[in-house]
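Bench notes, bay 3.
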Amino acid sequence: MKSVKLMKLILLFGIASGLFAAQAGKSAAQADANRNAYVEIEFDNLADFRKWSEPDPEECLGELKEEVEEIESIVEEVLSIVDALELETCPVTLLYQSGVPYLLTESGRYCLAEDLTVTCSATGITIEGSGITLDLNSHSIILTCTGAVGVDLVGTSTTNPINDITIKNGTVVGVNDYVLNTTGISLKDTADVRIEDVALTNLNFGIFVEDAVGTVINNAACHNNHFDIATDDDSATTITNSTFFGSDNGISYNDSHNMIVRDCSFSGLGSAILWHAGVLDVAEFDNCMVSDCSDHGFNLSNVSSVVVRNCSSSSNAGRGFYLAGSHDVVFRDCYASDNGDSSDGPIHSGFKIENSPDVCLYNCFSQNNTDKGFSVVCSSGLLARNCTATYNGNYGFTDDNDNTNQYYANYACNNGGPIALPNLSHNYNNILFASVTSPDNTRGVHNVDCSNSAVDQINAIESIVEDISVDVKEVCSCSLIEAIVIEIDEQLFALSSAVDELAETADDCSVKIVRNLPTQTLFSSGRYCLAEDVHGTIIIAANSIILDLNGHTIHDSGGVGIDMVGTSTTNPLYDINIKNGSLVGSLVGIVAEFVNALRIEDISCTNCEIGIFLENVDDVLLSNVVSYSNFVGLDLANVTDLLAQSCLFNDNKVAGVAAGGLGYNIGLFSSEFVNCIANSNGVGFGFAVSSNVVLRDCFASHNHGHYLPAAGFLIFERSMNICLYDCYAKSNFAGFVVDQTSTVLMRNCTAINNTDFGFFDGAGTNQYYANYACNNTGGNYSGVNSAPVTSPRNARDFSNVDCNNSDVDQIAAIFDCKVPCE
């Protein structure tokens, strides 16, 4: 019997099989290879085939070919959009409830296909391998009872951690109002773990980080947990853009090191930041908002080398900022208001510093707290400058240290007195102050008490001071440097406009996927995106390239992580943008030579010989770059028009920023550093710069060598036209060092607690105005003219304050003059 059970018609024409390959989990390369494969259409019997092909099989096949070719173009367009949006097309292993508990040991991508439920004392997913991405895929891991763990990352030891792990895009939740002894995500003995876009609710610990290095937590949402995030024996943990609401505790620390918390909000907690045990050293809290906590907002104990900057703490039942048993802490541009119970509960201060030496408060504001604005107890070496206290229930400023701490240019008004005397105004207690109009305040060094009605004496000495003012105006003439600053500002504005225009016109959906290959070269313009971590080198050999690391890491290249080299200064590469990821363990993280218009944004470089090396490069933007634990953080040779903003150069073995500092006579020109930090760099310096450079609001601490020129800020010999404004050097070998150059301006800079000089000038002819130096072991100033806090030379805010200078105040002598003093 002749019976056709199955006939296969082979259509000999190409079809866009990339879509089918993607559905089958094949790689993009496999999809391209299969584009010309045959397509098989099956028929159950010959009759069906004849019916389909009549009346003219050839004509039908031709029509079908045209339709398929039309589909092919549509599929190509869809695939392009999918690549741009998803960016990861490698195979995915789906995880179902039926497989719980899971043990993941092989690298690759794993994706939840549905919600997973975890029972008592069990773990939903255990990760014991490296190179793993776990995508929760908008699903939840549900912990039903005590002892359950959602995701557990377990390395062998601190010397053999698992690494390169990403967990993202979903929720870990307890079924009740926080479930006892449950943990959402647990890390132990890990390195370079990234947790992002994850919600953690109703848990004992939302995220527990132990013996982990380089953990990044971004865009986490923590709610109704006992501890939202707890750290223990960790290093280089970064928490950004996350929210904490309604939990008992926000972020707690125990023997944590090099922590960064940035752009986070905390509300309705017990405490936002708090001590759990151990210490916290070298940390930064930046741009965080805290409110409505039932205890203190920032509750810091046993911390050191910590900067709290641009943070607010309001409407907490306890104190806004509480610091105890700590040292070397800076509060800058912080705000505390409406803290302390206002009815029958205890009253509390906006800022309380207790048993904590060497603390600095700059430009901080404390208002409407039920107790004091600023309260200092049993703490020495404190400096408060340009701080404001208004409408607090008790004193504005109070200190039990008998005037041994330093308060300059602070302002207090309308603060209440002791509780027993509620109707008295007590703006200062145990702190020297002056009337609003007194001559002391014309120098900007004494503290303003708005309730002091002392007679204004300024007019009485105005004619005598006028001669000094004339001399001052001549000394203060620095038009050359001002012209350079204006020119740099104009160049930066033009650069910003060009960058904005480029961003608007270049952001299309055409993305080229970059995968893990030992060495790969980008030969054509366009947008490139990492779909996975890379263990090798990426070479940029074309102009107008955007390389998005997409949150991934370039590991252990053996040479250079990202390498871009133009032909010459007349034939450079140009228009290169590198962003959003990290480089670890290369000889040099990023190298650029003969490159123009280079942007490096949201990039970290770690454990390299040199984090970033730029030579013969023009027009550079470094934004939110972190370069730490390298030999040198940022090495610059013949670089012009660089703007570095909000960058961190910490814990490098020799130097944070070296411009001309490693044997180059030429380094950096027409450039600016704004709001950058260089701390704890080993045997050298924080910032070392050369000609036509401006540094604003930069911070350097604990940069130690054993001899000059080791310093927080170093200006090299043969450098020209350097301006430093509002910069701060603390606990370095030396604060600010100028090496045999004569066109430097420093204004409103601070040097305290440095081992050698606060300010050292090898030339002795540069310009220093309204700077402050105190408690520098080798001397506050060398080669720099200074004046005592109370001398008339400070009357026009142009001389430099030396807190150790005990020269007699000359105000009284001026009053006694019958004729103008000679």
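Next record in the batch:
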Amino acid sequence: MSCLLYCIGRRREAVEPEPPPGVGRQPVFLVTQGDLSAAVSHTAAVSQTPDLADVKAHGRVVAFFHRQRSVIPMRYGCLLEDELQVARVLEDHGPAYDDLLKELSGCVEMGIRIMVPGKSPEPEISRGLRPAPEAASYGAQSGCAYLLNRQAHYAAVERGTEVQQRLAEQCLAHFTGLFVNSKIEGPLPHLPLLSLYFLVPASLVESFTQAFRRLEFFREARLLLSGPWPPYNFVVKGHL
């Protein structure tokens, strides 16, 4: 039977509490190889469109082990053939996992989403904008008006992107000394949303939260703080 992988951590000799049930209410157990261990459960298959209960069960298992030790969290759906393949993966990627665990040691993930007010101009374009004044002299040549409108649209998108990038830079500077790594996701086309992820030492979570509350230069945007979480966004696909 296949194994669903939840997370990878260092092997521990001490007896640990029993983890919560995994996806499909299957028991979760550890596969060890050398100094590493992987939390897995048996499964016949993994749906490409999992229901919410499965996703929550996966998250609970990862969170459980993350409370016990530093772990490399895996996204839902990481499937291996059997326990032997799990052990081979731990052996083949052992040095890389060891380096990553050193980076993640004692840290959690904090997230900040920056939403810049204002709607995208795209819906207005799709409904059809009035020709710009410069296009009036072209009369029925609506193609020129369309191109001018598209130019205005992309200029607006670029301005919005510049605002988001500036806010991201200010945000990173504001939290200097409170994180060991960071990642930026976005901005997305036609969506005024920027996601920032911070790898924060657990001992500095409260200081990070207080610093977030002191932000004063984001009057032009709405911010949302989340976390602490296992550091999902600091694990890449190449780690498996």
